[in-house]
Amino acid sequence: MSARNYHPDTLAIHPELAGGVADGFRNLSTPVHRTSTVVFESSSRFKDRKRESPWVYGTFGTPTTRALEVQLNIAEGAADTCLAPSGLAAITLTYLAMLRSGDHVLVPRNVYTPSRSFATEVLPQLGIESDFYDPLDLASLAAAIRPNTRLLWVETPGSVSFEVCDLPALCALARARGIRVAVDNTWSAGRLLKPLALGADISIQALTKYHAGHGDLVMGSVSCREAALGEQVRRTRNALGLSVSSDDCFLVLRGMQTMSLRLDELGRRTLAVAHWLAEQKLVARVLHPALPGCPGHALWQRDFSGAASVFSFEFAPSVSSEAADRWVDRLQVFRIGASWGGTCSLALRMNVAADWPVLRGQLVRLNIGLEHPGDLFTDLSDAFEALAAEHQDVTLKAV
Ligand SMILES: *Cc1c(COP(=O)(O)O)cnc(C)c1O
Predict the structure, then answer these.
(1) What is the mean pLDDT of residues 86-92?
(2) Are 392 and 334 in contact (CB under 8 A)?
(3) Segment 320-358, tens digit of pLDDT
(4) Which domains, ranges and CATH numbers included, belong to the chain?
(5) Do the beta carbons of residue 98 and residue 144 sit within 8 Å?
(6) What is the distance in A from the centroid of ligand 1 to the CA of 205?
(7) With a 6 A CB cut-off, is 215 part of the ligand 1 pocket?
(8) At a CB cut-off of 8 Å and minimum separation 6, what does 52 contact?
(9) What is the average pLDDT across 245-257?
(10) What is the pLDDT of residues 256-309, one digit of tens each?
(11) Nearest CA, atom 10, ligand 1
């Protein structure tokens, strides 16, 4: 304790000068270290800060952000994980860390749409070329590889249409040519699929979805199999000034404690809904990798350890886009929204990319949440009944 008498204004800023807080407190939650500035014991320590301490500045991380990165290393089997402000930021950070002017990247046709847009709209400005490949056709991928191809993106199952690709085969093909593989592993929450163990270099997550688990924040992560690659990603992230809030990390760490339970139960409830949907007259096809009609079902059985809660179904070709929209609008418990993986059930009519014409009917993506399953079934069957009544009118008029 200092002998000086400090003004209350000063002590409000320096509680340590008033004696600090009690030591020896033990509890179960990760402390939230909010900070912009990190303080140092001496000028020389500050000068050597990058060598002296893992804690340098707010944007570079705090013990709270590091605690989350360590949990993700464990979950993904990674040497190093780097957090990003959103799932999309984790994707764009990976592109920027892995590619230089003159390089070429291959992106799957069924990729998350903003990832596709970044490849076509931003990368050309940096002198980086991209091409799109069919993730279900290894020969077409092999033919698309160029001497300057440096990165292969994979998303499995694919966004919106949910095909599962042969990830180990894609990785083997890329590795034989010295090409790095990055996988958007958001569907599996890093739990149902382990891309790094199957040969990928990078696994990215939108922690926004199952990890946070309650629809109340956005965050992403880039997990790398090798420490050197992790360092390359971290250097790029720090150069870009991308950082995450320790408060949000606290919420993700809390969500991760119950994620396994949520995923297991959501998987069970989702399969019940998916199988029921497959029986409906006006449904042509259910696109969930756990159902036999979904392309890559056998690969899902081989490589995945469970079912996630987001999937699509295709209406019969006779259902118009307007009728499909009305079906979605009639739902009362399912809400209309994009960011799945939380506790709330969602429905959204979606389109696939023009170069991925795998569908004939209108497509609706569903996320099953944790509402009582009975209410979800009632909601869906009411919407189908109304659609069937409408449909009969339309069919009669046509006759
Ligand atoms: C949601 C999502 C993202 C993006 O995550 P945000 O945190 O919303 O930016 C990326 N990839 C997939 C497959 C997603 O579902």
Answers:
(1) 98
(2) no
(3) 999 999 999 999 999 999 999 999 999 999 988 888 877
(4) 3-254 (3.40.640.10), 258-389 (3.90.1150.10)
(5) no
(6) 8
(7) no
(8) 40, 45
(9) 97
(10) 999 999 999 999 999 999 999 999 999 999 999 999 989 999 999 999 999 999
(11) 87
Ligand 1 midpoint to CA 206 (Å): 5
Pocket test for ligand 1, best of 339, 340, 346 (most atoms within 8 A of CB): 339
Cα 363 from Cα 118, distance rounded (Å)? 24
Q: Is the CB of 184 under 6 A from ligand 1?
A: yes
Is the CB of 186 inside a 6 Å radius of any atom of ligand 1? yes
Find out whether 82 and 93 touch, Cβ atoms under 8 Å: yes
Is 232 in a helix, a strand, or coil?
A: helix
Is residue 245 in contact with ligand 1, taking CB distance under 6 Å? no
Nearest by Cα to 98 from 21, 178, 37: 178
CA–CA gap between residue 163 and residue 156 (Å, rounded): 7
Per residue in 142-183, pLDDT (tens digit) is: 999 999 999 999 999 998 999 999 999 999 999 999 999 999
- How many other CB atoms sit within 10 Å of the CB of residue 323? 17
pTM comes to: 0.94
The candidate with the shortest Cα–Cα distance to 323, out of 273, 278, 384, 233, is 384
88 C-alpha to ligand 1 centroid (Å): 6
Residue of minimum CA distance from atom 5 in ligand 1: 87
Given a contact cutoff of 8 angstroms between Cβ atoms, the answer to whether 203 and 230 are in contact is no
Q: Which tokens go with 20?
A: 């600090």
Q: Strands 129-133 and 310-315, how do they pair?
A: unpaired
How close is the Cα of 204 to the center of ligand 1, in Å? 10
Cβ–Cβ < 8 Å for 280, 331: no
Cβ–ligand 1 distance for 220 under 6 Å, the answer yes
